[in-house]
Amino acid sequence: MLIKKMKIVLFAIFTIFLNQLIFAQKVESADKSDAYLIYKKLPLDENEKMMFEESFDLEKESEIWINSRQKLRIKVKEIIDSPKSNTAQLENLKEDINEKSYDIDEYYEIINETRKKIYLKYLKQKKRNKLKNEQENEINKLIEQAETFFYRTEEIRKRAYKLDDFNQTCQALNNAVDFENMGIKKLEKALKILLSL
After folding, report:
1. Total structural domains in the chain?
2. Is the domain of 70 the same as that of 28?
3. CA–CA distance, 92 with 142 (Å, rounded to integer)
4. Which of 90, 106, 97, 94 is nearest to 68 (CA)?
5. 27 and 68 together in one domain
6. CB pairs under 8 A, 24+ apart, for 159-162?
7. Which of 44, 57, 65, 195 has CA atoms 20 to 30 A from the CA of 88?
8. 9 and 60 share a domain?
9. Which domain does 6 fall in, by range?
10. How far is the CA of 44 from the CAs of 47, 48, 115, 128, 151, in angstroms?
11. 48 contacts: CB under 8 Å, gap ≥ 6
């Protein structure tokens, strides 16, 4: 009886330890994102820190919307594949997907605008006397590529809001988010070169 109780206690301790380990790995994984590493290394002022932290909160919320949208898309596929497809249910699900896409775009517009502003400030103001010519050229090239993506993003968004069809608007806004994210990645790559010195 005592041995049985000890086994139960040991199993409970092992389960708690395993859960803590899984949680720690998840946190560590999240903390290894380029945005987080840059946030930790840049000499941000208090206002910039607060803006960056708010962007992380928004990112977590947007991830919930993205996961929710993905589940809805799976449901849509299941209905389409079903021999008794329900057209009304299908249209409702598609509408839900579009609304979530619209919200995701709004979240990422705020997230990326915050990060873009901070990234460009430090990329353009930080002294680069330690840079070699090829590093300087690489950073300038990445900034230029990022700004091209941001320009295209704005153009797509302007056209999207003029569309009469909500489905097309949401699809266009999704494309805008993709372009903007690519621009942000270019700036993060440039900052990593700068911060590695």
Report:
1. 2
2. no
3. 42
4. 97
5. no
6. none
7. 65
8. no
9. 1-32
10. 8, 6, 12, 18, 26
11. 42, 118
- In sequence order, the 6+-apart residues with CB closer than 8 A to the CB of 184 are 112, 115, 116, 119, 146
Rounded to 5 degrees, φ, ψ at 51 are -60, -40
pLDDT digit string (tens) for 44-100? 999 999 999 999 999 998 888 888 888 888 888 887 777 776 777 778 888 888 888
Q: What is the pLDDT of residue 10?
A: 43
The structure tokens 């901070």 sit at 118
What is 135-180 written as a DSSP string? HHHHHHHHHHHHHHHHHHHHHHHHHHHH-S-HHHHHHHHHHHHHHH
Q: Which residues does the chain have with pLDDT short of 50?
A: 2, 4-31
- For residues 110 and 182, membership in a common domain is answered with yes
